Amino acid sequence: MKNLKNWDNKTWLASERYIKSFCTFVKTKKKLNKNTKILDIGCGRANIMSRLQKTFKFKTKPTGIDVVRHRDVKKNIRFIKCDAIKFLKKGEKFDLIIIKQVIHLLSKKDRIILLNLCRSSLVNKGRLLIFSLKTKGNQIPVFKSFKKKLKISLKKDDKIFTNIKKVLKRINISYFNFKVNLKKTSYIKMIKNRYISCLLKMTDKQIYEGVEEISLKYKNQIKFIDSLICIAFTK
Ligand SMILES: C[S@@+](CC[C@H](N)C(=O)[O-])C[C@H]1O[C@@H](n2cnc3c(N)ncnc32)[C@H](O)[C@@H]1O
Fold first, then answer.
1. Are 211 and 188 in contact (CB under 8 A)?
2. How close is the Cα of 225 to the center of ligand 1, in Å?
3. Measured between alpha carbons, how far is 96 from 128 in angstroms, rounded to an integer?
4. Which pLDDT belongs to residue 91?
5. pTM, two decimal places
6. Which of 2, 10, 131, 186 supports an S-S bond with 100, CB 3.0-4.6 Å?
7. 3-state secondary structure of 62
């Protein structure tokens, strides 16, 4: 699969407000203090780890791993360019492991390996938090062919969640909701940048037609709730 590079390129996902709100949510899921050791799998630019590090000044810098070294990866964390499975096999232990909007990019076989490795990489009472797009009542602004692909993708995600439950057994479900309010022109840029995996394989024509559709369908300001499911596992 083509690499996803633009999911947070000047989008709400990289905004101060989003990162702050997301970190506040994480704090409700796991008590953090300066001794907490954190791993973010598929960390991207490591905005979340960086923000948590600024707040808590952890004794051990949070670790962010990603197969891609994106531009502007935050400097105040330990970044390792590595595949998640390869990294976890080294046996390092963490109090908190975050996997945000990454799990759907793995094959079923790799996902099972990854989940088992995450479990064994947690200290006793450690927490694993898996975030993914909410599948029911998702409000992401779409155009026709995008809607079709998103529907298929969210159906697959539902199967992935069932599979995660099978592997991890005791899980707890909650939701992270973020109010998005952005200019239509900004959202159109995101579509042109193929910000979500559903858009990666679309033809230029499909994207062009989608942009036309969005232009007609939405007012100048687009408002919706970006919702993520949070699957939590405690060792
Ligand atoms: C949609 S982005 C999400 C990034 C970040 N977690 C966030 O929510 O802002 C998915 C990220 O997962 C990374 N990724 C995909 N497969 C991976 C793997 N097997 N090991 C480590 N990172 C991976 C991609 O390179 C990309 O940076």
1. yes
2. 22
3. 6
4. 96
5. 0.93
6. 131
7. coil
Burial group, residue 112, by CB count within 10 angstroms (0-12, 13-18, 19+): middle
Burial of 144 (0-12, 13-18, 19+ CB in 10 A): exposed
The total number of structural domains that make up the chain: 1
pLDDT tens for each residue of the chain, 235 residues long: 456 666 666 678 888 999 999 999 999 999 999 999 999 999 999 999 999 999 999 999 999 999 999 888 999 999 999 999 999 999 999 999 999 999 999 999 999 999 999 999 999 999 999 999 999 988 999 999 999 999 999 999 999 999 999 999 999 999 999 999 999 999 999 999 998 889 998 999 999 999 999 999 999 999 999 999 999 999 9
168, part of any domain: yes
Domain encompassing residue 62: 12-139+154-181+226-234
- Ligand 1 shell residues, CB under 6 Å: 3-4, 7-8, 13, 41-44, 65-68, 83-84, 100-102, 105-106
CATH number at residue 171: 3.40.50.150
Considering only CA atoms, which residue is closest to atom 13 of ligand 1? 42
Question: Cα separation of 198 and 113, whole Å?
Answer: 25
Amino acid identity, position 177: N
Q: Mutate which of 43, 47, 101, 102 to test ligand 1's pocket (most atoms within 8 Å of Cβ)?
A: 102
